[in-house]
Amino acid sequence: MVLYLEEGFSFYLKQGKMKNVDDLINMTVNYGSPRIRPLLMAVGMNIIGLIPILLSYDVGADVAKRISAPLWGGLITLTISTLLIIPAIYVIWRSRQFKTH
Asked: Are 85 and 2 a contacting pair, CB within 8 Å?
């Protein structure tokens, strides 16, 4: 996500579109939104793939369940942080640039 946001930031600077925090937020939405679908598809498929492990009662299921349950939490945390927290921190970090000038 940060790679795409940095690409957008440098493009906006070259075009002269980065003048204030509103432009920064607009750039973050424009360059971050194309990453939503691939991320949700990848995470969704991983979560769906873990369902049989969580529901099984065969040999080895006790060990597999202990591994797959934290994976669910990690995947959900990854999704929330990539879609919400990282762009918010990026905007806060880059907005400091406008306050110093």
From this structure: no
At 61-82, the pLDDT tens digits run 888 888 998 999 999 999 999 9
Q: What DSSP designation does 101 have?
A: -
For the domain made up of 2-100, the CATH class stated in words is mainly alpha
- Rg of the chain over Cα atoms, rounded to whole angstroms, equals 19
C-alpha distances in Å from residue 3, one per residue of 49, 68, 80, 81: 28, 29, 17, 15
**Residue whose C-alpha is closest to residue 35's, from 79, 75, 73, 92:** 79
Taking only the tens place, the pLDDT of each residue in 31-64 is: 999 999 999 999 999 999 999 988 888 888 888 8
DSSP 60: T
Q: Which two tokens stand for residue 61?
A: 């299921």
User: Domain-by-domain residue ranges, the chain?
Assistant: 2-100
